[in-house]
């Protein structure tokens, strides 16, 4: 290893697969913008490799780590201490070395989503009816920060109804929340529908009633891609005021992690614009 990389603070993202991760680029842009000197790389790490990889990373002087699919639950189990929002989500996407040598686990996904919705897209969540499609890890990660926005009601709908009901019960002490199956959505209307199923990326959609989205309602897919996802297209076809994908959330969760590590808040707007320009125009540098 060169002296250059040993003297500079080191960060990484672990995941499987990780090849197409935008995180190294996002953190490089944040570092440039804020004048922070750091090195951030992506590493392919399977669940079987996770424990030895994470121990080696911190033993070799690593300062902070992002963990993505499918490692967030393992990262939660690894962290010596977690923030309350990570505790509720039982998943960690950010590990940060503390001054006393311990490792703090945080989950910045939910705050990243809320910042994108509220600040970047000017959506007011207070007193609104929110529907979340899916009851897996992605839903669990966003529920706490969403409920903090004081919506009138949060409904979780899932293919496997029992999982939605169970997940809602875990968060019941935080606010008005309930779980149901897709069949139970008939006749209901929501101001905001979030897709947190893993179906959208493969072009699939849960079966949704035609009139599910209220007038002036918006849609948000936690997933993102170079082309609009199936759920973004569903929102457009159902007259959503905004039908957004998760690129903004990706950048905002990274900014929260950057702040936890460096104590500096990067400006996210230019980075989101840069990534958007890149996917709209493949010629962009
Ligand atoms: P993640 O961490 O991305 O949330 P997960 O924990 O495996 O991944 O959860 C995937 C979610 O997408 C689940 O809610 C799953 O529904 P089930 O709990 O019934 O399995 C949902 N999902 C996946 N494929 C789906 C499809 N084709 N239609 C509807 N829901 C789907």
Walkthrough of the structure:
The chain has 285 residues and is of the alpha/beta class. The protein has two domains: 9-107 and 248-280, Rossmann fold (3-Layer(aba) Sandwich); 110-245, Rossmann fold. It is built from eleven helices and twelve strands. It has helices spanning 3-7, 23-34, 50-59, 72-78, 84-89, 109-120, 137-148, 161-171, 230-237, 247-262, 269-280, and strands at residues 9-15, 38-44, 64-67, 81-82, 94-97, 103-106, 129-133, 153-157, 177-180, 190-195, 213-221, 243-244. It has a six-stranded mixed sheet, with helices on both faces. The chain has a six-stranded parallel sheet with strand order 9-8-7-10-11-12. Helix 6 (109-120) packs across helix 10. It is globular, with a radius of gyration of 19 Å. 2'-monophosphoadenosine-5'-diphosphate binds at residues 134-138, 158-160, 163, 196-199, 204, 206.
What is the CATH superfamily label of the largest domain?
A: NAD(P)-binding Rossmann-like Domain
- Can you identify the CATH class of the largest domain? Alpha Beta
Mean pLDDT: 94
Oligomer: single chain
What letter string, H or E per element, gives the SSE order?
HEHEHEHEHEEHEHEHEEEHEHH
The biggest beta sheet is recorded as: 6 strands, mixed
Q: Could you give the order of strands across the largest sheet?
A: 2-1-3-5-6-4
- Rough outline: globular
**Class inferred from helices and paired strands:** alpha/beta
Break the fold down into its secondary structure elements and pairings.
Elements: H1 3-7, E1 9-15, H2 23-34, E2 38-44, H3 50-59, E3 64-67, H4 72-78, E4 81-82, H5 84-89, E5 94-97, E6 103-106, H6 109-120, E7 129-133, H7 137-148, E8 153-157, H8 161-171, E9 177-180, E10 190-195, E11 213-221, H9 230-237, E12 243-244, H10 247-262, H11 269-280
Parallel strand pairs: 1-2, 1-3, 4-6, 7-8, 7-10, 8-9, 10-11, 11-12
Antiparallel strand pairs: 3-5, 5-6
Helix pairs in contact: 2-10, 6-7, 6-10
Bound molecules: 2'-monophosphoadenosine-5'-diphosphate.
2'-monophosphoadenosine-5'-diphosphate binds next to helix 7.
């Amino acid at each position: 290893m060169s002296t250059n990389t040993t003297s500079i603070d080191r960060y990484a993202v672990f995941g499987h697969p990780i090849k197409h991760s935008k995180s190294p680029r996002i953190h490089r842009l944040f570092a440039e913008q804020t004048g922070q000197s750091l090195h951030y790389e992506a590493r392919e790490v399977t669940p079987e490799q996770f424990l030895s990889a994470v121990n080696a990373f911190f033993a070799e002087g690593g300062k902070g780590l992002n963990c993505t699919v499918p490692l967030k639950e393992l990262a939660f189990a690894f962290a010596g201490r977690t923030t309350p929002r990570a505790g509720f989500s039982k998943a960690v996407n950010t590990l940060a070395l503390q001054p006393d040598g311990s490792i703090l686990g945080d989950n910045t996904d939910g705050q990243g989503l809320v910042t994108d919705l509220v600040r970047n897209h000017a959506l007011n969540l207070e007193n609104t009816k929110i529907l979340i499609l899916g009851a897996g890890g992605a839903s669990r990660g966003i529920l706490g920060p969403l409920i903090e926005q004081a919506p009138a009601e949060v409904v979780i709908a899932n293919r496997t109804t029992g999982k939605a009901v169970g997940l809602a019960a875990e968060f019941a002490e935080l606010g008005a929340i309930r779980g149901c199956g897709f069949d139970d959505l008939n006749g209901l209307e929501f101001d905001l529908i979030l897709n947190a199923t893993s179906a959208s990326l493969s072009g699939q959609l849960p079966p949704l009633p035609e009139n599910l989205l209220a007038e002036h309602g918006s849609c948000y897919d936690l997933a993102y891609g170079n082309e609009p996802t199936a759920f973004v297209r569903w929102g457009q076809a159902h007259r959503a005021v905004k039908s957004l994908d998760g690129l903004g959330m990706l950048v905002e969760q990274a900014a929260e992690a950057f702040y936890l590590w460096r104590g500096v808040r990067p400006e996210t707007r230019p980075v989101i614009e840069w990534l958007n320009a890149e996917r709209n125009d493949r010629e962009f540098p």
